[in-house]
Amino acid sequence: MTHDEIATALAEFDARIANDTQADGPWQALQVLSQKLIGAKLFTIMTVDMKNELARREYTSDAESYPVSGTKPIHYDRWFDTVHKDRQSFVANTIADIATVFSDHETIWALGCGSVINIPVVIAGELLGTVNCLDVEHHYTPERVERSKLLAIPAKLAFLAASKAA
């Protein structure tokens, strides 16, 4: 991906987030940007409530397989340590690696996905949630992982814009 392609994708995100007034507009804008920058067959947004130790799916690109509903308990494992404690992206590039942390790995595999990157969104020292991109096995190469860092500021903006729209 060239610098011009990245600049164009970011400008398109900026225009969408500035003008879209739909409740899911910020998430849809971030989904399109994520697909352009790093790719994502499946895209979801999770928010976290650490006080109650719960996570909630706020947005999904596949409402049939991953609906926006309810909450699930937060599990304390290596994923938690990477994302919550270290505030780093979690990357798994095989379904076997995904299976070590996600109980829904069979659903992920059935959707044709075998790799994941979970990008933490932190504002004012608080982890608000994660941007979750899934694709085929071995998709999140070191180059794509590096490029995913370009999503940090747009993700923060999307979280803030979504809270304003709610």
TrEMBL record:
<dbReference type="InterPro" id="IPR029016">
    <property type="entry name" value="GAF-like_dom_sf"/>
</dbReference>
<protein>
    <recommendedName>
        <fullName>GAF domain-containing protein</fullName>
    </recommendedName>
</protein>
